[in-house]
């Protein structure tokens, strides 16, 4: 029964991907302005990239259909419109706080109320009987309620999201019913889409949208020692947005970061032109595993610590070493770069004592070849910090890290050639174009990573999956900036095939993996069934 319920839930969820939601100026979503987290799925965009008919042809889907023992479940998987859900509109999930507690809600639109109620009857295994309240039907389900009328359904569940669970409040079913009723009544300024930032996000191009209001989230959390600081300065007005898109040849997540008044004022005092060739030129040439650059004044970080009232705690800790927060802020410019070029295996001898005797054994040890560097600003402040920690640094094994302070840089590396190249600063790596010009830029080479783990594959199925992955995934890039009072970021997972949208490719990738696993399982079943057994000897007379 649990499997059938799960299959029904999957069918209903994917149904909402089928066709686009057509709406005017407002979003049409019943989301309260106090919502802390919101997910919206653009069903039209998703279905235009991967249709239900394509999904039905995939091996993983057909396998799920075969495993569905309930006839209604099988019908739903073949034709999700039987759910009664309006497949011309998308669906939305949100999390909202209420006092010391919180609740989660999932909503969508209904096209055929009778069909929807038939689906609920088959998927709900409890003996609860739906009750009526005006035009609403209410079904109570242990810490959750499902409500609907002729045009919309709203699911509400208890969701305390305090970091200190002892300080959180749990809501009874009667409260959850009231929350659901209030959602249907939302209008005007009580709706989140009265905020133009949210409305613009939902109406922008993309397959999925995310809204995170840190202030609303933080206001419902009890965080222990964090409550003693002015964390509200960081949280109030702090809103993150994100849009996930399955584009041709890549999966993209991009978004914006909005800050409150005080934090915006602080950040605007500092500026960065982004990581230019002076910084990217220190990254190694060739086929690296990962690399990254960052360029933003350290003073912004130290002032942020002071803004939230954590400078006293920081100075108390640093003061034990004769240092201060200001020493840190003066010592470094805020420019840094790092790279991991390879992972090499070496034979390591491990010694141990046993019964008064020293013994040893050898083992293969994998170690990354890396380089890391930070630009020094005030040499006097840096020397003060370095001298405090020099004794501990000198105890580090030479093979683990070689620390140098030359040409205005602090470098840490276990490979002399990487250190020399970093300090020279005249490299021109091809991948640098993907991350340069931004406050933060990171590159991760998936092809290199898969080549490194190739030797670890122990069975044919894993090797085939790895080969399939090599034919699918290329690399990952990420960058972030701050301009004009707003932060922005983009995260790209790049695929080998540039001519097909990534959602279609993900479906094909999953389908091939299922086929590989099924073939491997069938091979073992054949071996087990054909294993010869010797006939037992006949008894003596």
Total number of β-strand segments?
18
| Helix percentage | 25-40%
- Count every helix, treating DSSP H or I runs of 4 or more residues as helices: 20
Low-pLDDT runs: 1-12, 14-25
Shape: globular
> Which percent range describes the beta-strand content?
25-35%
Q: Over all CA atoms, what is the radius of gyration?
A: 29 Å
Mean of the pLDDT scores? 87
**How many domains would you count in the coordinates?**
2
Largest sheet: 18 strands, antiparallel
Helix-strand category: alpha+beta
Quick overview of this protein structure:
With 541 residues, the protein is of the alpha+beta class. The chain is built from 20 helices and 18 strands.
Model description:
The chain has 541 residues and is of the alpha+beta class. It folds into 2 domains: 2-204, no CATH class; 269-517, no CATH class. It contains 20 helices and 18 strands. Helix 13 (298-307) packs antiparallel against helix 15, helix 15 crosses helix 16 and helix 19 (460-470) packs antiparallel against helix 20. The two termini are 55 Å apart. Mean pLDDT is 87; it is low at 1-12 and 14-25.
């Amino acid at each position: 029964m649990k499997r059938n319920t799960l299959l029904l839930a999957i069918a209903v969820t994917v149904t909402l991907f089928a066709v686009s939601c057509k709406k005017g100026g407002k979003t049409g979503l019943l989301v309260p302005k106090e919502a802390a987290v919101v997910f919206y799925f653009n069903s039209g965009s998703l279905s235009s990239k991967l249709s239900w008919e394509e999904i039905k042809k995939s091996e993983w889907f057909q396998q799920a259909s075969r495993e569905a023992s309930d006839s209604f479940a099988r019908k739903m998987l073949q034709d999700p419109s039987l759910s009664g859900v309006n497949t011309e509109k998308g669906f939305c999930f949100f999390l909202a706080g209420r006092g010391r507690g919180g609740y989660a809600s999932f909503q969508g639109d209904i096209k055929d109320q009778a069909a929807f109620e038939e689906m609920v009857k088959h998927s709900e295994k409890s003996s609860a009987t739906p009750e009526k309240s005006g035009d609403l039907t209410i079904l109570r389900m242990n810490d959750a309620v499902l409500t609907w009328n002729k045009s919309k359904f709203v699911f509400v569940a208890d969701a305390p999201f305090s970091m200190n669970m002892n300080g959180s409040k749990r809501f009874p079913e009667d409260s959850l019913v009231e929350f659901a009723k209030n959602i249907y009544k939302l209008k005007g300024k009580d709706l989140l889409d009265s905020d133009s930032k949210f409305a613009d996000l939902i109406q922008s191009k993309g397959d999925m949208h995310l809204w995170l209001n840190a202030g609303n989230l933080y206001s419902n959390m009890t965080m222990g020692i964090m409550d003693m600081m002015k964390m509200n300065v960081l949280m109030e007005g702090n809103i993150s947005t994100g849009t996930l898109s399955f584009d041709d040849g890549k999966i993209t997540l991009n978004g914006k970061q909005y800050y409150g008044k005080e934090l915006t004022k602080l950040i605007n005092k500092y500026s960065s032109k982004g990581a230019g060739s002076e910084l990217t030129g220190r990254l190694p040439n060739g086929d690296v595993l990962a690399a990254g650059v960052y360029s933003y004044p350290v003073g912004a970080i130290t002032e942020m610590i002071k803004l939230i009232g954590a400078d006293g705690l920081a100075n108390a800790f640093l003061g034990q070493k004769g240092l201060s927060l200001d020493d840190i802020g003066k010592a470094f410019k805020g420019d840094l770069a790092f790279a991991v070029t390879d992972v090499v295996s070496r034979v390591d001898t491990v010694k141990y004592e046993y019964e008064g005797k020293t013994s040893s054994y050898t083992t293969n040890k994998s170690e990354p070849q890396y380089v890391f560097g930070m630009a020094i600003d005030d040499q006097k402040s840096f020397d003060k910090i370095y001298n405090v920690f020099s004794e501990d640094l000198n105890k580090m094994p030479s093979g683990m890290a070689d620390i140098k302070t030359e040409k205005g840089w602090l470098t840490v590396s276990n490979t002399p050639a990487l250190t020399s190249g970093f300090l020279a600063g005249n490299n021109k790596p091809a991948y640098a174009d993907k991350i340069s010009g931004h406050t933060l830029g990171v590159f991760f080479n998936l092809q290199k990573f898969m080549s490194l783990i190739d030797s670890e594959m122990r069975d044919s199925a894993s090797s085939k999956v790895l080969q399939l992955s090599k034919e699918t995934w290329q690399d990952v890039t990420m960058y972030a900036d701050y301009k004009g009072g707003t932060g922005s970021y983009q995260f790209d997972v790049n695929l080998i095939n540039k001519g097909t949208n990534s959602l279609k490719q993900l479906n094909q990738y999953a389908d091939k993996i299922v086929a590989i696993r099924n073939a491997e399982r069938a091979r073992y079943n054949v071996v087990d069934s054909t294993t010869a057994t010797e006939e037992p000897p006949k008894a003596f007379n």
